[in-house]
Amino acid sequence: MFASLLKEKTLSLNLEEKKAVVAEVSAQIADAQAVVLAEYRGTGVADITSLRANARKSGVYFRVIKNTLARRAVQGTPFEGLANQMVGPLVYGISKDPVAAAKVMNDFAKGKDMFVIKGGAMPNFVMSATDVANLANMPSREELLAKLLGTMQAPIAQFVRTLNEVPTKFVRGLAAVRDQKQAA
């Protein structure tokens, strides 16, 4: 009985289901800033499940789909050049943040020989596995915004300290004069 259920579950998708998958992936790619491909052959289900959870936390759309459906989904988009890299059992990480997908999948790949990043793409730019690793080592959007905000606030904070120093020095001077007169 279990074998028949498994056989029914693993049969290929019908045409309507395929169209739905392509539409779903196309919608994700339409808003994407990065797509990362990785070969997952030999990676355990528990590992893939933890990768899915990490991807979800980081806002990365994570999906295992047939390459033919993925090629249809990227057709006519800025990620169309990625179609040549879609060979073998692949998992797709798609994100609106240009660094998030690369960071999640690269962090997962560390220490796992069976999970190999094959490449990726940003709009109109196909990346090699090395490019994806370099992208993953960049600070995230939030980190860059925090650094920018800190840099922008530094001159204002220094200006406020300088303005505050004038009355402080004046008050100290008055206190010194008062102390001098009291001593005399």
Quick recap of the structure?
The protein has 184 residues and is α+β, with helices and mostly antiparallel strands. The chain is built from 7 helices and 5 strands; from the N terminus they run ααβαβαβαββαα.
- Name of the CATH architecture of the largest domain: 2-Layer Sandwich
Structural classification: alpha+beta
Flag low-confidence runs. 1-10
The count of DSSP E runs of length 2 or more, i.e. the number of strands, is 5
CATH class of the largest domain: Alpha Beta
What is the terminal-to-terminal distance?
A: 107 Å
* Main sheet overview: 5 strands, antiparallel
In which range does the helix fraction lie?
Answer: 55-70%
What is the spatial order of strands in the main beta sheet? 2-3-1-4-5
**Strand residues, percent:** 5-15%
Number of helices: 7
CATH topology title of the largest domain = Alpha-Beta Plaits
Average pLDDT figure: 84
Envelope shape: elongated
Number of domains: 2
Q: What is the CA-atom radius of gyration, in angstroms?
A: 28 Å
Write out the CATH superfamily name of the largest domain.
Answer: Ribosomal protein L10, N-terminal RNA-binding domain
